[in-house]
Design brief:
Length: about 300
Amino acid sequence: MTSPRITTPFNARSSAADVVAGVDLTGQRAIVTGASSGIGVETARALAAAGAEVTLAVRDVAAGERTARDIRATTADRLVRVAPLDLSDQASVAAFVTAWEGPLHILVNNAGVSATPEMRTREGWELQLATNYLGHFALTTGLHRALTAAGRARVVTLSSIAHVQAPIVFEDVNFRERPYDRMLAYGESKTATALFAVEANRRWAGDGITVNAANPGAVATNLGRHLTEEDYAQLPAFDFKTPEQGAATSVLLATWPDLDEIGGRYFEDCNEAARYSPETPLQGVADHAIDPAAAERLWQVSLDMLADARRA
């Protein structure tokens, strides 16, 4: 039986501050990756404003410290920490996990790169898959014990409407055989993040951990720094959001009380997404991004890739 689609009082124009109004996160600990710019800043700000202790997990620590000072100045001097994390570097991910102590109530896997030229990590992994998905996979599985220790925890992983044309090509996830297509590689990485929510929630719901995917919508941030004018001309006519609005769906999934024990789903505009249809090409979730069989297969592929990297 299909579960009923989740709806909330919020919509595409709601802000992260709207979502956390009246929510008390006192005593809870949160991590937001990529929180030194864009919607990551506003996600962290909203969680801090609601009382959470927030760690900004960032590649550029100096930028993270500037962001932390700004958030403290706007949230009654809440406790905001900064920690180094480069998701494309498995050693950096492992160091972050090792350094974390105590329970973790909220993890927002927000960081990402988009439409990069063909680049590879030291393992030979395609950069967008490595950063947007595999780095977060290693981070989240590495923090599983801390999430379990919280008693009830939430994980949010960011996807994108770019996933709809990009099912995972399991035979060539790193574009070793196919000609590299930077937009397709981005889309596949975002299909992977959606599938992660499906399988992680299946595995971990019994530990009190719920995992959901969020499409923040179109937001003009430095995520698009690799896009050219020609690229933008070919994009659909998105209705762009502010960073505060772009952060709202992530914050909803991380905090809204009515979502307790709701997981393995894909949300956009602060509501669970409907099934994708070409008639509404800027909305919805494709079947291949929430397919349980594909999610289970990707999990095993990911474990195998990480194991191979450790042996190398």
